[in-house]
């Protein structure tokens, strides 16, 4: 050690200045990760009180499901996903401090964009700042706060994976931020502490394929907010349209290595829980025979109000019946391997003459 010190002592002032400059550069290079960690903490601390738990109930009084939302106005306007409140007759919103508010109704919905504005009787609530989703870039770091599986104020982070655009021009933010049932409706937050998206869904069959509605669509909904409407009167999803053609065969074509003679499906319900069964079409009826009798049905095709994939690239099919029940299905083969939903969608629409 003495030799090293002595050696340093023999260096010229210029050499010593070079060494000190190099050491300073190393210290500065290490600083960003420390600052980044503290900024995540700062964003979470400033945002968590602006995120809420949404609990929805059916007309009979039983809980229908849970989701997330966030405050966008001090006078009690909450933004969430439409599918969080779909089919609900009542709802409550719970703040991070434990305060609970009854939802008075909706001020607007965008069923195709999966957005809803709720109104509660709150005052001086802390709204989150809304950013500009058009300025988001692939690789940007993001934070999500929500209530996955009812675990309130859960924080997760990731990056923007891609910006996806449908043929219609509608965009979606794809992100690696983890999402689970209950995260839907929560904010996707930038490192500037601004909401730049609404966490909406995850693609099945892959990992970290999560999607959010860009916040600029929500801004349009907020700007066009209308009069208060009760939850039960909220409009539902519209069906996909298909050209009218000849009646298609009831049975789907064989697919996969094993092939199938019926539509084997998994019904997704109650915050991500599932039941398995078989779906068939014939004699003007649609039948779902499930291992859970509560979720089985056998009704005329005329009772189908809407049928469509929940998103263009999704393999989950939503069927809504006229009496108000909504079902979501994934198609499998007889061994449970997931298949595409298009053959089932085509068969139903053809059987309905659409």
Describe what this molecule looks like in 3D.
- The chain contains 5 helices and 20 strands.
- It folds into 3 domains: 49-120, Beta Barrel (Thrombin, subunit H); 129-216, Beta Barrel (Thrombin, subunit H); 263-351, Pleckstrin-homology domain (PH domain)/Phosphotyrosine-binding domain (PTB) (PH-domain like).
- A hairpin with a 3-residue loop joins strand 2 (63-73) and strand 3.
- It has a 7-stranded antiparallel β-sheet, covered by helices on one side. It has a 6-stranded antiparallel barrel with strand order 1-2-3-6-5-4.
- The protein is of the alpha+beta class and 354 residues long.
- Tally of DSSP β-strands: 20
Beta-strand residue fraction: 35-45%
> What separation lies between the terminal Cα atoms?
86 Å
Largest sheet: 7 strands, antiparallel
Give the SSE order as H and E letters: HHEEEHEEEEEEEEEEHEEEEEEEH
Evaluate the radius of gyration: 26 Å
Look at the structure and give the mean pLDDT. Answer: 79
What is the CATH H-level superfamily of the largest domain? Pleckstrin-homology domain (PH domain)/Phosphotyrosine-binding domain (PTB)
Q: What is the CATH class designation of the largest domain?
A: Mainly Beta
Structural class: alpha+beta
- Quote the CATH topology of the largest domain: PH-domain like
Tally of domains: 3
Question: From the 3D coordinates, which CATH architecture of the largest domain would you assign?
Answer: Roll
- In terms of per-residue confidence, which ranges show pLDDT below 50 for 5 or more consecutive residues? 1-9, 30-37, 235-261
Specify the overall morphology: globular
Percent helix among the residues? Answer: 10-25%
